[in-house]
């Protein structure tokens, strides 16, 4: 007699396995699931017991899949996605639009662009749940490709044939300086920054790559006095008179003129934000309304 499917594993066990691998630890997976670390460990141990093989091993400080775990991982992702689609398909027969949408975004867009968008979605589609994760473009490209995110709002360009891209908005960069410092010209060229203490975003991020390229095109190669991983932290350092920075205009809400000198760059520099998703991914109605709200939200 063939075994029942439930004698092999449960969706909760597969989800625990996938999250432990994606996040690199049991504790990080537990935080994502909102349960205790021992509960996650128990789910994985029971999955290993039912399948009769070890699925995870510790590599340095991180947890990684064994060969057997790696073989299961792709199937686990597919099973979880199919289960989510099945649930959304059933809910679609209700009068309203329901379902969950997994969205990745940078911290700046999360703070300054998404709040009114999410407020709109909640007001018009209260049964749609948007699960927002913050991070960087490189990580989000990988996670959208792996289907652990439905789509992500990232800084373009991205290099992946598996993804489709919908441009959302162009966000100009500006120079900010301490309010009490000597007055800056209305537009600032790269060479005007050569003698200023610059506080820049940490290397490797798309924002830093764009700024470095703008400086080099103007014949300037600077060594910043600080390199930080948060635009909000950079703003606080500048406000305290510790230096100057080049940041996206989006990060300066109304009223920022009282805290900073804000100047345009010459020549202008801007980043383009876009929504990325897998080309082969079915778009649920919940995904559609969230994507439309983000694209329409770019307009005043």
UniProtKB/TrEMBL annotation:
Classification via Pfam families: HTH_1 (PF00126), LysR_substrate (PF03466)
InterPro entries cross-referenced by the UniProt entry: HTH-type_LysR_regulators (IPR050950), LysR_HTH_N (IPR000847), LysR_subst-bd (IPR005119), WH-like_DNA-bd_sf (IPR036388), WH_DNA-bd_sf (IPR036390)
Highest taxon above the source species: Bacteria
GO molecular function: DNA binding; DNA-binding transcription factor activity
PROSITE patterns: HTH_LYSR
HTH lysR-type domain span: 9-66
Keyword tags: DNA-binding, Plasmid, Transcription, Transcription regulation
Any single GO CC term annotated in Swiss-Prot or TrEMBL for this entry: cytosol
SUPFAM superfamilies to which the protein is assigned, alphabetical: Periplasmic binding protein-like II, Winged helix' DNA-binding domain
Similarity remark: Belongs to the LysR transcriptional regulatory family.
Name of the protein described by the UniProt record: LysR family transcriptional regulator
UniProt source species: Comamonas antarctica
Lineage of the species this protein comes from: Bacteria, Pseudomonadati, Pseudomonadota, Betaproteobacteria, Burkholderiales
